[in-house]
Specification:
Elements: E1 6-7, E2 19-22, H1 31-36, E3 38-45, E4 51-56, E5 62-66, E6 72-77, E7 83-88, E8 95-100, E9 105-111, E10 116-123, E11 131-134, E12 139-142, E13 150-154, E14 159-164, E15 170-176, E16 182-187, E17 192-197, E18 203-208, E19 213-218, E20 224-229, E21 234-239, E22 245-250, E23 255-259, E24 266-271, E25 276-281, E26 286-292, E27 297-303, E28 312-317, E29 322-326, E30 331-336
Antiparallel strand pairs: 1-3, 2-3, 3-4, 4-5, 5-6, 7-8, 8-9, 9-10, 11-12, 12-13, 13-14, 15-16, 16-17, 17-18, 19-20, 20-21, 21-22, 23-24, 24-25, 25-26, 27-28, 28-29, 29-30
Length: about 325
């Protein structure tokens, strides 16, 4: 089960982050050519579903949206250099974190309908990329695909408490289980998925030979790990008990992120090259619906966590609009501008 309340992507040559927008896809791509085709975006929602925040390459600002009523963009926060990933806190509902790769820092931001405030800056290192939250232990795990160092930030102490090398090429492909004990990290440099002890950062297991990793998420029970492979236009399904491949499911062109609605019946991918969402049955492991989006997608897609809104997912377009999609009906219900 993910605690990101958001979505992401990848890069390297452009040093971009979040959920990726891909110019093209080729199963025989090298790692460097794969990375060079990607643009980044990241979309996250507060636990109470009152606010959303988004970043997207090449914008240097963080966009804040109110989800009340029809929703609207209520603020644009400037002062960042390369905001890559945004993640909301779960213990402080209207607090979120921004990873800025150029500044090499994680910014803590508190928001309301009227105001926002950057309350703290945590220095990490230049090149940081992806983040995932462990709300139980109040920790933030931060990747750096260039140096290969994985950092653990204590959110109460507001500083790094542990770092470990050995994770080059891990961009936005980072996930944590619901108990906060195991991390899953996907590397586009080594083409490995690392299963890591979240307390020590020691590698427990390695799944080898996985190309074009752009996102990975656990299902609600944590029994399955879903991985988007951009270079193969597939979702790969692994058992977390055996780490064996259970299924390879074809999707639309260039799947860059995925999300899982709260009823666990579907896996939904955002496919940036053909501008679609693929709806996959988690029972039958096949695509049951393809939704064509009205505007170019960036790759970020997030399922609603609001009670009674299991049929809604949100995706970000290249104009920084949030598309509200009813996935069982296959329609865009509204656009938050």
């Amino acid at each position: 089960m993910t605690f990101r309340y958001g979505l992401f992507a990848f890069l390297l040559l452009f040093i971009c982050i979040g959920t990726a927008y891909a110019q093209g896809s080729n199963p025989s791509m090298t790692s460097s050519s794969f990375e060079s085709t990607l643009y980044s975006s990241s979309l996250a929602f507060s636990k109470d579903m009152q606010f959303a925040v988004a970043v997207q390459d090449p914008h240097k600002s963080v966009y804040v949206y109110s989800l009340k009523g029809n929703g609207k963009n209520i603020a644009t926060i400037n002062g960042f250099a390369s905001p890559r990933t945004v993640v909301f806190d779960e213990n402080i509902p209207h607090r979120f974190y921004v990873a800025d790769s150029t500044r090499g820092a994680v910014f803590i931001v508190d928001i309301s309908e009227e105001t926002y405030k950057i309350t703290h800056t945590i220095s990490v290192e230049k090149g940081i990329f992806g983040m995932v939250l462990d709300p139980k232990r109040k920790r933030l795990f931060v990747t750096n695909p260039t140096t290969g160092i994985l950092h653990v930030i204590d959110l109460e102490k507001k500083g790094i408490i542990l770092s470990a090398p050995g994770f080059k090429g891990v961009q936005q492909g980072i996930e944590i289980n619901s108990s906060g004990t195991v991390l899953y990290l996907g590397s586009n440099t080594t083409r490995n998925i690392y299963i890591v002890d979240a307390r020590t950062l020691n590698i427990l297991e390695t799944i080898e030979g996985v190309t074009g990793i752009t996102d990975l998420q656990l299902n609600i029970s944590g029994a399955r790990l879903y991985v988007t492979s951009l270079t193969n236009n597939m979702v790969l399904v692994y058992s977390t008990a055996t780490y064996k491949l259970l299924a390879s499911i074809p999707t639309g062109s260039s799947p860059t992120s995925l999300t899982i609605p709260t009823d666990n019946t579907a896996i939904i991918t955002s496919n940036t090259r053909d501008g679609t969402l693929s709806v996959i049955s988690s029972l039958h492991m096949n695509v049951v619906r393809t939704i064509k989006l009205p505007s170019p997608a960036t790759g970020a897609v997030v399922a609603s966590k609001a009670k009674g809104s299991n049929d809604i997912v949100y995706t970000l377009d290249k104009s920084m609009n949030i598309l509200v999609v009813n996935w069982p009906m296959g329609i865009v219900q509204k656009v938050i501008e």
